[in-house]
Design a protein that fits this description.
By secondary structure, this protein is mostly helical. Helix content is 62%, strand content 0%. The protein is built from 9 helices and no strands. The longest helix has 22 residues.
Length: 182
Amino acid sequence: MMTREEAWSLLTEFNEDEFHLQHGRIVEKTMMYFAEKLGYGDEKEFWGIVGLLHDLDFEQYPDQHCIKSQEIMKERGIDEKIIHATASHGYGITVDVQPEHEMEKVLYAVDELTGLIGAVVLMRPSKSVRDLELKSVKKKFKSKGFAAGCDREVIQRGADMLGWSLDDLIVQTIEALKTFQD
């Protein structure tokens, strides 16, 4: 199985922009949090690697997102489970690889949501997730012009895939971010 160091090396080979690298680290840590919370603690590193690599191809190949990454990973002999999991977050957007495992559904749901929450945090006087509440995120979620690049339909579909309410998904993701962000 791929190590975190190998995953980071691969990510930085295809990504230089600090925004993309930071997003990868945020999704990595969020995925690790959910692995523990949902009873997959023994797979925490795997969940993290999937989170870290999920946007591998986005910076260089935005028009082939989740397509080019599969090619890159296959060429390098990376485990099919990582390839499927990372590609599945583009389901119904760029690929027809459906999220099957609970981990893939979590990735699908939290990818866009972590971006939205990050944008909300930047607008707060504290610039911190520590004092962030559900109502603040919900207010910005309903404002289509705010963080317009964060697809609300994808976030809602992710919550639905998991069988969670949107509120529960947001609250749990805020809690995940509190474990490693200020």
